[in-house]
Amino acid sequence: EHEVLAPDGELRWQQWRDRGFFDDQGRVVEYQAVGRDITERKHAEDKSKEILHRLGERVKELTALHHAARILQNEEHATVEWLQQFVGVLPSAWQYPEITAARVQLGELELATPNFKPTPWTQRADFSVAEGLQGAIEVAYLEERPAEQEGSFLAEERNLIDSLAEMLRSTMARKRAEQTLRENEAEL
After folding, report:
1. What is the tens place of the pLDDT at every residue in 29-77?
2. What is the pTM of this model?
3. Which residues of 26-65 are buried (b: 16+ CB within 10 A; e: fewer)?
4. Residues 135-165: pLDDT tens digits?
């Protein structure tokens, strides 16, 4: 199988099958070659590979969302512990997890993966919790990646970081409301 340039200038894929016919002395007496155009099949294979890749990326994102949600629902750990677990899950959801680092800021509190550093290839989602408490999630590639049609990060990754920020915001708001309720009950 190989690519050939068609007379109209289009690149096409050809598949060749050939065989020789031999006489009793082992000399080639006839040679047969059959070629066929397999361009459509190659395009379908490429499309299937792309679909499988995109599906794999969505599974990674959903898995990270699931892990993040389980961490945020855990009432046993202190805020710092579950935020550190939360930030540790983030790189696994991105397209290049091996060079991805993350950081979560919540007011004065800052938790990051050990390799985090700001780079030109960083995306950020800010959020606000009640009483003016500000927070942010940052995900950074530690080295440049090819900017496809969408830039360094996929559109789904930009949506993912916004979803994670909203999960963190709503969890923090709920925890603050529960704390206020406990304080009010204790005062009563």
Report:
1. 998 999 999 999 999 999 999 999 888 888 888 898 898 888 888 766 6
2. 0.70
3. eeeeeeeeeeeeebeeeeeeeeeeeeeeeeebeebbeebb
4. 999 999 998 876 665 567 888 888 999 999 9
Q: Which of 187, 91, 64, 87 lies closest to 79, judged by CA?
A: 87
**Rounded-to-integer distance, Cα 95 and Cα 99, Å:** 9
Q: Which residue has the tokens 């789904």?
A: 156
Q: What is the DSSP string of the chain?
A: -EEEE-TTS-EEEEEEEEEEEE-TTS-EEEEEEEEEE-HHHHHHHHHHHHHHHHHHHHHHHHHHHHHHHHHHH--SS-HHHHHHHHHHHGGGGSS-GGGEEEEEEETTEEEE-TT----SSEEEEEEEETTTEEEEEEEEESS----BTTBSS-HHHHHHHHHHHHHHHHHHHHHHHHHHHHHHHHH-
